[in-house]
């Protein structure tokens, strides 16, 4: 049987970087699906800023250091990871590739990199877990039906999930103008199968958003505290963008935080994640691990996030582009490219392992205040 890694030789030789997959992916999916998979909220300023802010940061090299026995491994919540790069939760992956999340988990397994399964995956959580040969985490959207939500948590526990990522930044969907202009609608066969059996939201009583059940039944800090009581899984809050919320999350019992603006897909006008990382890392002061996502397309971006206080990063669109272009092989290849770039950046900055990467690895003048 050929492994996905063996099939990597089928990748066109012109693919050298993650950005090359973006070009291929765009050609392979419908314009509507592209608007969903690649787009952001409103004017997409935040989505662009996530990338631009990485480009403004510059690396400080240290030369002639002994780099023998160097490696990229790290540990998160008791699991040893090959590299501090995880696949972010991405809904409806069948929009990108017919096998959807099953192809993704194969690609992640080939590279032994962890994957976070979305609540709104287009393949059942248990079916993804069945194929996984790599650590899986589950991303939870707290549903208006809290009993249903708890059943999702129990399913995640039963499937051998290693951590629960609760996304707290999207009580409502972003206003995605690009999708609206394309008239995007989900095609048949692409649905949130893990939410089957969930009663629809009750009808809104008025026109105002504030009166709608989306808001009146939206999650609050109390739900995080209840979840903390309900499960022993490590609880990681995704969508933290301020030091105040980081502090509050620790009080609620979070075991980790993900600095994320949802890839600029929810509220346009938020700053880049890499811009707020130092502030949040300062407030958290090593009490729990901080992860970051948003705009990562290069191994040097991973390095910059680690330098400014992240323990690991997640990638969203980068792997979606690989998935859309070449299925499992594309996902594995994107991970391989990022891993190789991270290694090269570490060697060239004189960092033997992840713990050697520090704020001194970045030229601080490049940071905005
Ligand atoms: C197509 C798509 C679907 C997403 N679906 C989810 C989701 O179901 N849950 C979630 O917490 N975040 C979701 N996200 C956000 C990602 O987890 C992540 O925060 C974001 O993609 C990071 O930015 P990047 O795409 O620039 O790497 C989605 C992102 C994309 C691009
Ligand atoms: C179904 C959506 C809310 C999933 C999501 O988080 C996204 O599209 O960014």
UniProtKB/TrEMBL annotation:
Family matches, as Pfam families: FMN_dh
Gene3D superfamilies to which the protein is assigned, alphabetical: Aldolase class I
Assigned keywords, A-Z: Flavoprotein, FMN, Oxidoreductase
Family annotation (InterPro entries): Aldolase_TIM, Alpha-hydoxy_acid_DH_FMN, FMN-dep_DH, FMN_HAD
Annotated GO MF terms: FMN binding; oxidoreductase activity, acting on CH-OH group of donors
Chain residues that bind glyoxylate: 36, 141, 176, 260, 262, 265
Cofactor: FMN
Sequence ranges assigned to domain FMN hydroxy acid dehydrogenase in this UniProt record: 10-367
Record-linked SUPFAM superfamilies: FMN-linked oxidoreductases (SSF51395)
Residues at the active site: 262 (proton acceptor)
Binding site for FMN: 89-91, 118, 139, 238, 293-297, 316-317
Domain of life (superkingdom): Bacteria
Family, per entry: Belongs to the FMN-dependent alpha-hydroxy acid dehydrogenase family.
Protein name: Alpha-hydroxy-acid oxidizing enzyme
């Amino acid at each position: 049987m050929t492994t996905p890694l063996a099939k990597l030789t089928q990748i066109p030789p012109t693919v050298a970087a993650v950005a090359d997959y973006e070009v291929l992916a765009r050609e392979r999916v419908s314009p509507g699906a592209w608007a969903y998979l690649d787009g952001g909220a409103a004017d997409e300023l935040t989505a662009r800023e996530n990338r631009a802010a990485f480009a403004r940061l510059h690396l400080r090299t240290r030369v002639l250091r002994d780099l023998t026995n160097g490696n990229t491994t790290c540990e998160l919540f008791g699991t040893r990871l090959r590299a501090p790069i995880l696949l972010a939760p991405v809904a409806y992956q069948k929009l990108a590739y017919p096998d959807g999340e099953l192809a993704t988990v194969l690609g992640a397994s080939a590279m032994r990199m962890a994957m976070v399964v979305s609540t709104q995956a287009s393949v059942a959580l248990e079916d993804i877990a069945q194929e996984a040969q790599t650590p899986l985490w589950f991303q939870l959207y707290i549903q208006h039906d809290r009993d249903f939500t708890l059943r999702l948590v129990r399913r995640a526990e039963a499937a051998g999930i290693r951590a629960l990522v609760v996304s707290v930044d999207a009580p409502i969907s972003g206003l995605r103008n690009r999708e609206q202009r394309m008239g995007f609608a989900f095609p048949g066969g692409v649905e949130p199968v893990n939410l089957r059996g969930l009663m629809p939201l009750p009808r809104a009583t008025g026109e105002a958003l504030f009166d709608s059940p989306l808001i009146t039944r939206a999650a609050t800090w109390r739900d995080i505290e209840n979840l903390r009581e309900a499960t022993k899984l490590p609880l990681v809050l995704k969508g933290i963008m301020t030091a105040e919320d980081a502090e509050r999350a620790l009080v609620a019992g979070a075991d980790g935080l993900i600095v994320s603006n949802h890839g600029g897909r929810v509220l346009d006008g938020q700053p880049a994640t890499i811009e707020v990382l130092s502030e949040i890392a300062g407030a958290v002061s090593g009490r729990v691990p901080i992860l970051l996502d948003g705009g990562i397309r290069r191994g040097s971006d991973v390095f910059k996030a680690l330098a400014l206080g992240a323990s690991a990063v997640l990638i969203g669109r980068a792997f979606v582009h690989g998935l859309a272009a070449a299925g499992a092989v594309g996902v594995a290849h994107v991970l391989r490219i990022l891993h190789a770039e991270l290694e090269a950046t570490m060697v060239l900055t004189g960092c033997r392992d992840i713990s050697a990467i520090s704020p001194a690895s970045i030229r601080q003048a490049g940071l905005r205040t």
